[in-house]
Amino acid sequence: MPDYVISAPKPATLPVQGTDALFPVRRVYCIGRNYADHAIEMGHDPDREPPFFFQKNPDNVDTSGEFPYPEHSKDVHYEIELIVALKSGGRDISIEDAMNHVYGYGIGLDMTRRDLQGEAKKMGRPWEVGKAFERSAPMTALTPIEKTGALDEGEITLDVNGERRQTGDLNQMIWKVAEQISYLSRYYELQAGDLIMTGTPAGVNAVQRGDTLKGAVAGLEPLEVSVV
């Protein structure tokens, strides 16, 4: 065993449906404004401009089913997303080969301190303060692609306290999963353990303590998160 000078942090992992094995999380890439209706509601042109990505930290991933309302924010938003988990990677991956690197899928929430993100945008600063905070990426267990097939269509929804807030279809993504993998691999060396949060449909809004969020993607186990 290595002789660390301090205690090594616990590795970030996701459970896998139907097994006791764990999926180790290396990086978390998130694509912005990848559904046209969401781009419009955020005040942007939904035309197919080049994609852009930001990152959350691996230890932002949380499977506890609880989301603690963060301090220093009064406007925290939900964003329901399909999660893609990679089993391998590389550089300059072709679109045709991209899906061969997919291990499986899950459902996640890109929780966002919208007020802090907005302040950062106005000052031309990075978004991490609004996106990459503790437990900001609630997720389900992963389902291997062998059980689902490639998920390129199917309903994606989010209910808040039993009321439907977000509705879309995976086929409405501006940049499809294979395109996202290929594009990312131009600028990063993708590796096994990487996650991609693939964007959210319209309907994002604020949460309050006591809310219950239920997310669903056709073919996957649902996500349920309580805001505490």
- Write the CATH homologous superfamily: Fumarylacetoacetase-like, C-terminal domain
**Named CATH topology:** Fumarylacetoacetate hydrolase, domain 2
Residue-averaged pLDDT: 94
Q: How many distinct helices?
A: 6
Q: Give the name of the CATH architecture.
A: Alpha-Beta Complex
Oligomerization state? single chain
Uncertain ranges: none
- What form results from the Cα inertia axes? globular
The sequence of SSEs as H and E is EEEHEEEEEHEEHHEEHEEHEEE
Structural class: alpha+beta
The percent range for helix content is 10-25%
CATH class: Alpha Beta
Portion of residues in beta strands equals 25-35%
Quick one: how many beta strands? 17
Report, as a whole number of angstroms, the end-to-end distance. Answer: 38 Å
Q: Compute the gyration radius: what is it?
A: 17 Å
| Count of folded domains | 1
| Largest sheet features | 6 strands, mixed
Account of the protein in words:
The protein has one domain: Alpha-Beta Complex (Fumarylacetoacetate hydrolase, domain 2), CATH 3.90.850. 17% of the residues lie in helices and 30% in strands. It has six helices and 17 strands. The protein has helices at 36-41, 95-98, 114-122, 128-131, 145-148, 177-187, and strands spanning 13-15, 22-24, 28-31, 53-56, 61-62, 66-67, 76-77, 80-86, 102-109, 112-113, 137-138, 143-144, 155-160, 163-169, 195-197, 212-217, 223-227. It has a six-stranded mixed β-sheet. It is globular and about 40 Å long. The mean pLDDT is 94.
